[in-house]
Amino acid sequence: MRIILLGPPGAGKGTQAARLALGQKLEHISTGDMLRTEVSGGTELGRLAKTYMDRGDLVPDEVIIGMIQGRLKGGAGVILDGFPRTVAQAQALDKAFTAAGTKVDRAVYFKVENEELVKRLSGRATCSGCQTPYNLNTAPPKKAGVCDRCGGKLAQRPDDQPDAVRRRLKVYEEQTAPVLDYYRKAGKVREIDAAGPVDEVYGRLAAAVK
Ligand code: AP5
User: Fold this and answer.
1) Which of 111, 135, 169 is the pocket-test mutation for ligand 1 (most atoms within 8 Å of CB)?
2) Which of 63, 66, 79 has its CA nearest to residue 30?
3) Ligand 1 pocket test target in 4, 6, 15 with most atoms within 8 Å of CB
4) Which residue, 24, 50, 130, 210, shows the most beta carbons closer than 10 Å to its own?
């Protein structure tokens, strides 16, 4: 299976992608995580990307497509989380998959109200070691500031500040919502209600990719 998770910031794509990857033995590719690795490594790409990410804008298509191309090979199943985010990226993905003799099987759209998204993002904290996501309001770690899974330190993302969140939601409507239409026209979209407990959302996701 080659699955794309689509939805606004905070919809739960990363949380659910990690579970689905474990449950179905698929590779989880998150362009957001790839970029954050570049940023924390202080690479040239990371320094460039940070200027866009911190204010909530998309990193330019050519940078993203160049970064991810090497990982879009045929063979193993994959979950794409945070990519494609523009129609140009979706077209580049189709091209890469066609060249590898494969295709996108399903695009799952995570539907959540904006008010809930803002609430989730303002409380989000992520492990700096293993990237496990927490929510300080609804799903905190057992010990404050420390990851239950690996003992790593929890951090809040600069782009989860209110101004950047507002910008990310706007950018999503303007640049990423058209990607949903792109996959709707191809008959690949399954829409799920991504509100409610994480386990219930996972059940809906697993049914949507069956
Ligand atoms: P990226 O990291 O992809 O951010 P995003 O799409 O904005 O998504 P998020 O990670 O904010 O949310 P999510 O849907 O994964 O939710 P999560 O599971 O974490 O991208 C960051 C930036 O990188 C972009 O703004 C851009 O600059 C750049 N970038 C990345 N890819 C790019 C691309 N392809 N092109 C150009 N630029 C790109 O959950 C959020 C919170 O909610 C967590 O606290 C979680 O614990 C909680 N939560 C999850 N599920 C539930 C639930 N069911 N109930 C209650 N709380 C929940």
Assistant:
1) 135
2) 79
3) 15
4) 50
- Tens of pLDDT, residues 163-191: 899 999 999 999 999 999 999 999 999 99
Domains of the chain, start order: 2-112+163-209 (3.40.50.300)
Question: Quick count: other Cβ atoms within 10 Å of Cβ 91?
Answer: 14
Ligand 1 environment, Cβ below 6 A: 7, 9-15, 31-32, 35, 52-53, 56-59, 64, 82-83, 85, 89, 120, 123-124, 133-135, 138-139, 159, 168, 196, 198, 201
**Per-residue pLDDT tens digits for 16-29:** 999 999 988 999 99
Q: Whose CA is nearest to atom 12 of ligand 1?
A: 10
pLDDT in tens, 52-91: 999 999 999 999 999 998 888 766 799 999 999 999 999 9
Buried b (16+ CB within 10 A) or exposed e, 40-67: eeeeebbebbbebbeebbbbebebbbeb
